[in-house]
Amino acid sequence: MRDDDALQNNPHVSRLALQDLHTDLYSWALSRCDYDRAVAEDLMQQAYVELLSGRALFNNKSTLKTFVFGVVQNLARSQLRQIAIRLRIVRSHSAELQQDEGSLASDSEGDHEHIWLAVQSLPARQRDITELVFCRDMTIEEASAVMGVTVGTGRVHYDRAKKALARKLAALNENGS
Amino acid sequence: MNKRERELEPEMEKSVAESISKRDVRSVPGFDETWTAAEARFLVEKRRYRMVTGFAASLALVAIVLGMLPPDGDQKLPDFELEAGMMNTTLWSAPSDVLMPQYPIDIYQDIPEIPVSTDLNGETLL
Fold it and tell me: Angle A140-147/A151-176 helices, nearest 10 degrees?
């Protein structure tokens, strides 16, 4: 890490490393606020402010990715909990409507949507660990650290999520064939 | 998990990952843009923090200066007046309230009468 690239209040974090994580982090922030882009951008900026100010101090105890994902997760929990809950209620309601409409839609356009709805119908913790492990290339240990749960709890959530998803997708395939 | 579900597992992982990824990377805001906004926000926050701490420090300073001032003259004056008043007069009022009406007494003028006997019984003064 170049000296001039490290953050003043966070010497183990470099701007370049954050730039590499940016896309993944934004995707994670998006899913934290039910895919509201404005809220996700605000969340990203706030996460960077936390790193710039040194309030979120990285001390090499985990990978930077795990740490920064955890910062976003904690910010989303503390600041946006109320908004997220409201959005989730609205979204889950619209998801139910979409599911009803989806049963009438053609298979080709509905595949991703069905899988998406299956993921969305999981409980929050199961959905989070699914996203972190499947899409963000994290191990269960790293994902558990981001979510602020023990590895054991993380494994349970992961196992249940996989079983629930497998059941839902198997049912979908049977309906499709 | 039954056999059919287990067979679907790798396929499921792939399709779930695709499905989620499809949702989120349609228009990622540029890193530089986000970083610049974050830096600006940080500077504003820093300035605001400095203002608040400066205000708190000046308040504390005012409190200390006020605390170091000699006691208020207006409060001390009645004591002197009372003292001077007491030195200039022989009139004294006992503390009073509703139950005990005020009873001023001049310690020189209102000399209590002391019963004095001049009668003798033999050589003893009664």
Answer: 110
Q: Distance between CA B60 and CA A60 in Å, rounded?
A: 39
Q: Summarize pLDDT for A59-81 with one digit per residue, the tens.
A: 888 899 999 999 999 988 876 55
Query: Is the full-model pTM beyond 0.80?
Result: no
Distance from CA of A90 to the nearest CA of B (A): 18
CA of A123 vs chain B CAs: smallest distance (Å):
15
Give strand pairing partners of B91.
B106
Q: Residue B89, SS3?
A: coil
CB A132 within 8 A of CB A142: yes
Nearest to B41 among A23, A45, A170 (CB): A45
Give which of B1, B6, B11, B20 to mutate to test A binding, by max A Cβ within 10 Å.
B20
Say what the ipTM of the complex is. 0.70
Report whether B22 contacts A35 (CB < 8 A).
no
Is residue A55 within 8 Å of A5, Cβ to Cβ? no
